[in-house]
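Obj: model holo form, ligand = GEK.
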Amino acid sequence: MIDASYRDAIFSTPLDRVASFSFDERVVACFPDMVRRSIPGYGQILGMLGLLAERHLRHGAHVYDLGCSLGAVGLALAGRLSPDAFELTGIDLSPAMIAHARETAATESPEHRLSFVEGDIRQQGYRDSGMIVLNFTLQFLPPVDRDAVIAKLFAALEPGGILVLSEKIVAPDEQENAWLVERYHDFKRANGYSEMEISQKRTALENVLVPDTLEGHHGRLESAGFSRVTTWFQYLNFASMVAFKDA
Ligand code: GEK
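Output (holo structure tokens):
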């Protein structure tokens, strides 16, 4: 089992060459601490996903959690909905994440139907679903692949279904963006990250996490066919949107 308090110290010592960030066993071990200290609003977003499911999900419908990491989305839904209310499939590229997600779900929510598949979300065939969640995952796909994935997911959603997309974003105005990034670094400092950790993590994520603008996300979702897109959450340069498919 992952120890949720195991501290992220991956970039706490000087590295000769900062390798590109990857979701390996070292990251998995400290992942709950990392996301809590690095993603503003992460806990609130998870909490709201359960409420969105309660409100919008047809009873018994299937849910996808894409880029599920340790399976936090499934556990959040299981915290609010009964085992017969939904069935969830989590998909992640990282074998280490999937192994731990399976173990945690079996221990913490044995009654709920949560299953986990190792795979690339760009290459999956998708079954009909009532809700699809991409909680800080699309940002890790090469930008050229993003339109096709969203189009595929729109096709897999049942009429009346929702897609929830949470992302790190970039503001189109340079000055506004610089301010948001600086305040985000203040947020990380306040959460105990040192200057060296902030700067080395930034280097490691270059070209790995490529953020879009909020306008870019809305445009992509609308082009895929979603009738309505609402940004329901923003905290600095992190946002979450819900996109509705007409019933
Ligand atoms: C949470 N949603 O805790 N196919 C499948 N998975 C991928 C791909 C891909 N092509 N690319 C990256 N990933 C989670 C947090 S983390 C966000 C999501 C973060 C996976 C990758 O292996 C990692 O587990 C996840 O996307 C992104 O609510 O670390 O900032």
